[in-house]
Design brief:
- Chains A, B, C: It comes from Zea mays.
- Three copies of one chain form a homotrimer.
- Chain A folds into two domains: 3-188 and 349-361, Aspartate/ornithine carbamoyltransferase (Rossmann fold), CATH 3.40.50.1370; 190-346, 3-Layer(aba) Sandwich (Rossmann fold).
- Chain A has 14 helices and nine strands.
- Chain A has helices spanning 3-7, 44-50, 67-85, 109-121, 132-135, 144-151, 167-174, 190-204, 222-231, 251-259, 270-276, 294-303, 308-313, 342-361; strands at 99-104, 125-129, 157-162, 179-184, 211-215, 238-242, 263-267, 279-282, 319-321.
- Chain A binds chain C through residues 8, 10-14, 18, 20, 96-99, 101, 125, 127-132, 134-136, 139-142, 146-147, 149-151, 153-156, 362, and chain C through 81, 85, 87-91, 107, 109-110, 113-114, 116-117, 120-121, 128, 130, 202-203, 284, 288, 324-327, 335-341, 343-344, 346-347, 350.
């Protein structure tokens, strides 16, 4: 949400932007920034001051959340389970009269659906643009900024999916309404990271002290990288990286974990790792990453499969997660095991997105 | 709706599935199966027992409905006319808080629109996926079952359109929420068959004893085949098949009608058939079925046209139906004749779908 | 909305069409036609009488509105600003229970979004068809008329975007519910013209007596042509045409303005024109109009750019408008100037569409 842009809104324009957009209790700020109080949002001077350091009211990247913010989001997400259960008898009207625009420059039906379901479960309404690429078409050459300035006139919050890293930040810098990053290219997918951490907390009961095995494509998987960033905010975490050599976790994440004092270890023995983990997070090996080296893909792909043998050694209290979609890296026989958490994880995406929409639009 | 899948849902997962999903009064079961009472739905043991024999709460194929079920659906459909008329002054809230996902693996705007209108006319909400093929993309290789398990977490009922015969049944076996088949490839399109039979009843006043002329492409038309299956449940039906030789009704339907004691006859004289029928059901000759034999298509196509000459011999009380879209197999001059029922038939699709959504989600 | 078609609706069909569709106070008729009173709508005889001369209840072309009609629309549009501001605390229910179908035969996300937002801000619901071309596909060969007759059964108003000039009129002649033209090929885009004129009134305070500079592609721009038609309804208008030679305003518009006594002048000096105008309306030079003559395009494109130099001479009270999307014909430095009205103009599209939907569905 752009402060400068708002200060520049000229005369007869009636501000879209009421103080109800801002929650004084909302702590979704980077930890280094002071919390803004509701009144502050109407002061251009103060906004100018914070323009660079805060993104209050936008969800752009996993790292922006401190533990307090995460706790608040997870608390609200938990409340959302009851809200959803009450949908038929006493549907929520919390976001009645609010309009969410899903501005998707690349298709992601799964993510879009869960955002739209979240908005509806809270009584809000949705404007859908599945092929926004055409909207501000390359042919016509409209900038993302111009598109945002148009769409913000028609809605109360924008959920942006874009093919370019950094697009969400750019949109948020332009918009006078909140922006949620629903994935920007190889960049971030913060709501996925949030739902992953929420799922661990919901399944295991705690985050501090957990042992987490990350399995599969650790080099290219946006998901596991964001998860590593976010989990590093907790205490006494131990991470095991289990992946074929060609798709090993990259040094930037390892260095980041080191700097945060998070213990990590690489292993090629899935069974041994599984036997001591609280959470095994499996990912898909993405064929498209291997180009013409189909042989490498085939070798990598079959190497670490989650099957009955893994279940046999996995602790009773542990869970198996996966961002979905899956191919055969988790066999179907695993699905009926109570420790298979991946469909519950997908469902948690609904609760997390409900929580974010509520927090961004009306506060806690 | 899968019984086994539900029994397997593990611990912290809160059931999506409340008894309100089940109506004790709903008789949409195959006639051979005992009705389940509401309470039964929460008993995994009982569910296991019924898993194979019942599809309570799913609409998969025309044959699943017995006469009692059809009567109930038609009765509710009739009530829906009043509900729709009241939309502006006193809109229905019957499905308030319910969310329908239209999961369309191939486009069918007409069918999708009428389902979405039906949901809205009852106060419900809609999640739209027009290109679900991309959703669980062949490239990514997700199974239909996995997609269903994700989408059921975001919605209360799934309307599935798929390119593969049997897909609807597979989805219903997986889902813990009701599934409606909105056409699965060359397979079934049960809501079309229901609206066709409802239209006959609504226009003629009765189904027993009617004389029905099926005209056009009887070999490939999913519509006329399903209609034949469904009409066979009534008494003293007489069916005339009028079609070019290359697209004659196939033996499986003829044998089925024989086994049910339904009289049928083939004829090449449309005028003679029209003069003694209560209902003429015209269909489009589909060019794509003829491959490179354009000559056969052209010959077939022009052979049986519904025009002023047919109107002249058609009984005053009779009606002309067509599943739409039409080309020139019914001439435009017919449209203004009161016996032209095809646009009323399309409208009945709304009422039938409203009735099904109400029956599946909250019961009668 | 077709009168003849309605008269022909046969027996068991329950009219979709209640007197609430018709507002006795609504003056959206060509000025030559008498106003219809509410009761009239139920009389087939009277409808027949008016069939050709009135399009009461449809929005087809800019010229259909007289000054009284424009005043009424603008008055309601102004009220809509307050309705929108109240969305969060006290959302409007004015169109509760009404269903709008957006039938788009070519994509136009911007226009579609603003219509859908308008409907939602008034409490109404939306059925979306983004690729209606497939709906009544060329392959299947359904006529627009048949499509309209189906869709009108599922909705209360149709917003049509089509690639063929005249399609909106054809649809309105068929439909028994109101039709709004959201652009039909090279034909009309009346809601854009309305929002343009509304923006001038809203920004400048008056329409009579304004000096208006039309800049850019005046030959191909549907927008500037429609605006010229509409502005001619006001008094003492002076229009300056500023465009590269290859895309000059065509004679038909010049002759029309002459016949209406509107003063106009051609100029190649943007700065001089800007220095004496109340409104500068800039448009995009469309590359696709130049075919292979990229050289002509490049020359035309760079010729008249709205930048700091133009701002320096532009009167303080004046405004810069643009139908969007823009390329570089307005530089980004202009955006922060209070006289840059184009994003407010886009926003006015919401208010105008809210006003039209309200007027067509429930009246003032």
């Amino acid at each position: 949400m752009a402060a400068a842009a708002r200060a520049a809104l000229p005369r007869p324009h009636l501000s879209l932007f009421s103080s109800s957009h801002r929650s004084p209790h909302l702590s979704l700020t980077p930890s280094s920034a002071p919390r803004l109080r509701s009144g502050a949002a109407t002061s251009p001077a103060l906004q100018q001051h914070h323009q660079v350091t805060t993104r209050l009211g936008d969800v752009i990247e996993a790292q922006q959340f401190d533990r307090d913010a995460l706790n608040e989001i997870f608390e609200v997400a938990r409340e959302m389970e009851a809200v959803e259960r009450g949908s038929h008898g006493a549907p929520s009207r919390v976001l009645e009269g609010y309009l969410m625009a899903t501005l998707f420059y690349e298709p992601s039906t799964r993510t879009r659906l869960s955002f739209e379901a979240a908005m509806r479960r809270l009584g809000g309404e949705v404007l859908t643009t599945e092929n926004a690429r055409e909207f501000s078409s390359a042919a016509k050459g409209e900038t993302l900024e111009d598109t945002i300035r148009t769409v913000e006139g028609y809605s109360d919050i924008i959920v942006l999916r874009h093919f370019e890293s950094g697009a969400a930040r750019k949109a948020a810098d332009t918009a006078n309404i909140p922006v949620i990053n629903a994935g920007d290219g190889p960049g971030q997918h913060p709501t996925q990271a949030l739902l992953d951490v929420y799922t661990i907390k919901r399944e295991i009961g705690t985050l501090d002290g957990i042992k987490l095995g990350l399995v599969g494509d650790l080099a290219n998987g946006r998901t596991v990288r964001s998860l590593a960033y976010l989990i590093a905010k907790y205490q006494n975490i131990k991470i095991y990286f289990v992946s074929p050599d060609v798709v090993k976790m990259k040094d930037d994440i390892k260095n980041y974990l080191n700097s945060k004092g998070v213990e990590w270890e690489e292993s090629s023995d899935l069974l041994e790792v599984a036997s001591k983990c609280d959470v095994i997070y499996q990912t898909r090996i993405q064929k498209e990453r291997f180009g013409e080296r189909i042989d490498l893909y085939e070798a990598a792909r079959g190497k670490y499969i989650m099957d009955k043998k893994v279940l046999d050694v996995l602790p009773k209290h542990a869970v198996i997660m996966h961002p979905l979609p899956r191919l055969d890296e988790i066999t179907v026989e695993v699905d009926s095991d109570p420790r298979a958490a991946y469909f519950r994880q997908a469902k948690n995406g609904l609760y997390i997105r409900m929580a974010l929409l509520k927090l961004l639009l009306v506060g806690h």
